[in-house]
Specification:
The complex is a heterodimer of chains A (about 120) and B (about 120). By secondary structure, chain A is mainly beta. Chain A is built from no helices and twelve strands. The N and C termini of chain A lie far apart (about 40 Å). Chain B is globular and about 40 Å long. Chain B contains no helices and eleven strands. In chain B, the strands form two sheets. In chain B, strands 2, 4, 5, 6, 9, 10 and 11 form a seven-stranded mixed sheet that branches. Chain B has a four-stranded antiparallel sheet with strand order 1-3-8-7, with no helix packed on it. The chains are: A mainly beta (about 120), B mainly beta (about 120).
Chain lengths: ~120, ~120
């Protein structure tokens, strides 16, 4: 079974600074997706960024980028120029590329609570 | 983008009553929907996978007679918490699968409080 580990329960960053959230995972599959989701105080889950394992290039979305190390099974999220609105829980998630049961289930890490200091 | 709604956003009920939570995909058809439960300061726990027109697949440890899931159409799945008790109080989130990446789009969640 796949597992996702987020070893940082809480992180803080000064506004306008850069922060990196860590995530490691375990799988025997070679093709899969990795995601970072943001859950602000409203508790609405928002997709931040997606990485396909078969792509070597790290995904980027504006101020958000990932460092995907497939051999090390590491998938960290870098947030540049942090803003107050970035304060939230961040969840790393894994999904098989193909689902034999057709369900495409996500496996979530336990989350990292990010605080942004003005 | 794909939008998923949930209703109600919060509900308070008495112990022993049943509560129904609706999950709708507003601008797309979802063959698969998922139901999660989230306790305070914890991650999302998958309860069940719901496929349109068939029985839901429940995760180990989830009582299917207590948490009834119906996915009667391509845009609606419902979760009914039967004979609710205070320990069922939680935040329930649904999601729907859509798009070329088979992504899950999440509803805003429903806070259930059982007195």
């Amino acid at each position: 079974a796949q597992t996702v580990t987020q070893s940082q329960p809480e992180m803080s960053v000064q506004e306008a600074e850069t922060v990196t959230l860590s995530c490691t995972y375990d799988t025997s599959e070679s093709d899969y997706y990795l995601f970072w989701y943001k859950q602000p105080p409203s508790r609405q889950m928002i997709l931040v960024i997606r990485q396909e394992a078969y792509k070597q290039q790290n995904a980027t979305e504006n101020r958000f980028s990932v460092n995907f190390q497939k051999a090390a099974k590491s998938f960290s999220l870098k947030i540049s120029d942090s803003q107050l609105g970035d304060a939230a829980m961040y969840f790393c998630a894994y999904r098989d590329l193909y689902s034999g049961a057709g369900s495409y289930q996500l496996t979530f890490g336990k989350g990292t609570k990010l605080s942004v200091i003005p | 983008g794909a939008v998923v709604s949930q209703h109600p956003s919060w509900v308070i009920c008495k112990s022993g009553t049943s509560v129904k939570i609706e999950c709708r995909s507003l601008d797309f058809q979802a063959t698969t929907m998922f139901w999660y439960r989230q306790f305070p300061k914890q991650s999302l726990m998958l309860m069940a996978t719901s496929n349109e027109g068939s029985k839901a697949t429940y995760e180990q440890g989830v009582e299917k007679d207590k948490f009834l899931i119906n996915h009667a159409s391509l845009t609606l799945s419902t979760l009914t918490v039967t004979s609710a008790h205070p320990e069922d109080s939680s935040f329930y989130i649904c999601s729907a699968r859509e798009g070329p990446y088979n992504e899950q789009f999440f509803g805003p969640g429903t806070r259930l409080t059982v007195l």
